[in-house]
Amino acid sequence: MLSQPSRKYRPTPVPDLPDRQWPSRRIEAAPVWLSTDLRDGNQALFEPMDTARKHRMFRMLCAIGFKEIEVAFPSASQTDFDFVRQLIEQRHIPDDVTIAVLTQARPHLVARTLESLQGARRAIVHLYIATSPTFRETVFGMNREEVTQQILAAVEQTRRHADAHPETEWVLEFSPETFNATEPEFARDLCDAVVDRWGGTPEQPVIINLPATVEMATPNVYADQIEWMHRHLAHRDRIVLSVHPHNDRGTAVAAAELALMAGADRVEGCLFGQGERTGNVDLITLALNLYTQGIDPQLDFGDIDAIARVCTECSQLPISPRHPYVGDLVYTAFSGSHQDAIKKGFAARDPDAPWSIPYLPIDPADLGRTYDAVIRVNSQSGKGGIAYLLETAYGLRLPRRIQIEFAGVVQQAMDRQHQAGQSAEMSAAQLMALFEATYLAPTTAITLVESRLATAADGVTQTVKATWEAGGARFERQGSGNGPIAAFLDALDLPVRVQWYEESAMTQGSDARASAFVGLVTDDGRYSAQGAGIDANIVSASFQAIISALNRMDAFRVADPAMAFEAAAH
Ligand SMILES: CC(=O)SCCNC(=O)CCNC(=O)[C@H](O)C(C)(C)COP(=O)(O)OP(=O)(O)OC[C@H]1O[C@@H](n2cnc3c(N)ncnc32)[C@H](O)[C@@H]1OP(=O)(O)O
Ligand SMILES: CC(C)C(=O)C(=O)O
């Protein structure tokens, strides 16, 4: 790279617009959308779509709700021409959808383009000519006047054809290609001349489309350019002002949004930002950005995965897993603090209140995505994500103290998996297996064989008759206390006491199960441990939790639960 890039590259000139209004405006309604997936998107593919794929894409665009669809560059190929003919002759175009076709401003290409539209109910004829100094001088070898005459000749040719074919409702669109690199006054004069020559009216306006053919500046510069045109065009009331941003600097969405604030009425772009080089502006991101501000985008992305499937099959191009709103990973949190916040957000969620789940700008369910992938556990995860997965998959609600402890167990297992070159992610099933190996494993020092609870004659005291095995020997004892747990501990007759205890239902109905969690400490305070039990009966679950805690106390422990998990996993 150059040490002094200014020798080679110059900053883009900024329009003189000191009283710009757009920074304090807001977007309050959806623009008119035009999908150019079948034209600008299609012309940028290794292998342009065949007729079958074009039909599939067209049907999907209609189903999404696009009312204007640029379907082809009919003079470019027989496939494009035939596709337009099929749409018209086979009546594939819904009554509320208008097709658009693009052509250079050259007489034979305009003629072929108009021919393709014969019999259309309504059609947008989109004429373009590049207008920037580089194109005028280097590509065309024409001055401003010659460029103006060339486009006006194409407008007249189209006008004559339109007058001769009143059975079609004709709409003219004009694009000064490379608008963003064109002197604003020249672009304005050209657009005014086109509107005059066509005879645009407020009832039948001309679409003036101002492309950032190659994105060259920060989005605010494009917004200035659009606002300048919006304020200086002679016949603003006879114009639908349209923008067509490309994404060369990665800021097409921002450019389109600021352009709408600056006065644009319409946006042209492609789904998932397909299109030449780095693509056209991504209409899905734009539309869903509006949606998350409470604005109806007038486009339906309620099954975004199905839309992504059609797009990738038609274009043969992948979509990044981090693509806004649709990528495989965009509703997934791996990192611990994010998971913790999401879990708390879902727990506190009021379905009638505005959406405010941390780290999720949109409800995945609105786009047909499930919550399954919202939280995934890997080595970056913490207790929140682990607890979320166990709760959503198994209804197992871990108390905070167990969450903290179990997160450490998961972390160690993850490190071992990582060192063994295995997957760095842990599924809910794997987490449950590790939980069972850690807290519920039967291959431990003490095993509860049987317990029977009864109420003593005083009607208050609880008695427990328990049988358990420890170190190969079988024990059977009776104990009593003011509750089942006290009675059970009395039967065990060990120098331990309960520090804390929590229980909760895991499922409801006939297959109901309960989980119980306990913290035990030895009377001398030297050892402590936490345990868990799961059983159809909550009292049995609490006894198992005590046995679990005893087994996990250093004084009693014989098995490494993480090793047990590894054995289960293989
Ligand atoms: C920014 C955009 O996306 S614009 C749309 C781009 N899409 C396409 O071009 C679709 C596919 N294109 C094609 O099939 C062909 O280019 C055609 C049929 C349009 C034209 O083919 P050809 O006549 O063989 O020309 P070619 O492909 O070499 O294009 C260059 C010619 O177009 C001219 N040209 C380019 N844009 C325009 C324009 N808007 N108006 C008039 N002439 C133009 C150039 O000056 C050049 O002319 P020259 O050969 O006299 O120097
Ligand atoms: C022809 C115009 C609309 C275009 O595609 C562009 O400038 O990118």
TrEMBL record:
Pathway it works in: Amino-acid biosynthesis; L-leucine biosynthesis; L-leucine from 3-methyl-2-oxobutanoate: step 1/4
Domain Pyruvate carboxyltransferase: where? 31-305
This enzyme catalyses:
3-methyl-2-oxobutanoate + acetyl-CoA + H2O = (2S)-2-isopropylmalate + CoA + H(+)
Q: Where is this region: Disordered?
A: 1-21
GO biological process assignments: L-leucine biosynthetic process
Q: Provide the E.C. number(s) assigned to this enzyme.
A: 2.3.3.13
Q: Where in the cell is it found?
A: Cytoplasm
Summarize where Mg(2+) binds, as residue positions: D40, H244, H246, N280
State the UniProt keywords alphabetically: Amino-acid biosynthesis, Branched-chain amino acid biosynthesis, Cytoplasm, Leucine biosynthesis, Magnesium, Metal-binding, Transferase
Output the superkingdom of the source species. Bacteria
The UniProt entry, under Gene3D superfamilies, shows:
3.30.160.270, Aldolase class I
| Entry annotated with the keyword rRNA processing | no
Q: Where are the annotated segments for Regulatory domain?
A: 442-570
User: Subunit composition?
Assistant: Homodimer.
- What is this protein for, i.e. what is its function? Catalyzes the condensation of the acetyl group of acetyl-CoA with 3-methyl-2-oxobutanoate (2-ketoisovalerate) to form 3-carboxy-3-hydroxy-4-methylpentanoate (2-isopropylmalate).
Which protein is depicted? 2-isopropylmalate synthase
UniProt source species? Halothiobacillus diazotrophicus
Give the taxonomic lineage as stored in the record. Bacteria, Pseudomonadati, Pseudomonadota, Gammaproteobacteria, Chromatiales
